[in-house]
Amino acid sequence: MRNPGSIPAEYLKSPEGQRGRYILHRAPRLQHHIGGVAPGDRATAHNHETWGVIGVIENEIEETRLPRDGGGAGPRGARDAERHAHAAGGVSRLVPGDEVHGMYNPTARDTDRDPRYGKDLAGLKRRRWEADGRRSRSSATDI
Fold first, then answer.
1. Whose CB has fewer CB within 10 Å in the chain, the N or C terminal residue?
2. Rounded to an integer, what distance in angstroms lies between the CA atom of residue 14 and that of residue 18?
């Protein structure tokens, strides 16, 4: 995050008509990728089942955190949602048991991110939730 100029420019732009994600390191206990989030792109609340740090390289991203209920079954819902705007250089931290979040690019240009997770997320069936806390479909996609 301190030196975004060290990242090759081709990793910071999404391929035409696609969401860009370039895997830099993939192992059972670590996944590191660089990716662009297109204007208006949104990922509803979802889990990662591991720790994570998501840095913003360029532009900004809005994150909605849904705290878990007391029993740990799922998030409490929209009334307890916390919204955070992460500008360039900002970092979101995910902690197991408190890693349910959604991401949104509210701007008119791509947001470049640098996520790192404590496991290989490829193919992970993530749980998803609606804004009111209701459980939604499972999916292997994420921004």
1. N
2. 6
CB burial of residue 83 (10 Å; 0-12, 13-18, 19+)? exposed
The H or E element spanning position 57 is strand 52-58
Res. 142: pLDDT tops 60: no
Residue 80 phi/psi, 5-degree rounding, is -105, 5
Could you give the CA distance from residue 131 to residue 1 in angstroms, rounded to a whole number?
Answer: 30
In contact, 129 and 136? CB cutoff 8 Å: yes
Closest to 63 (Cα-Cα) out of 98, 37, 92? 92
Pairwise CA distance, residues 51 & 117, whole Å? 6
Q: Which residue has the tokens 């939730």?
A: 129
Phi then psi for 63, rounded to 5 degrees? -115, 135
Of 35, 6, 10, nearest to 115 (Cα)?
A: 35
- Is residue 61 within 8 Å of residue 120, measured between CB atoms? no
Contact between residue 60 and residue 119 where contact means Cβ atoms under 8 Å apart: no
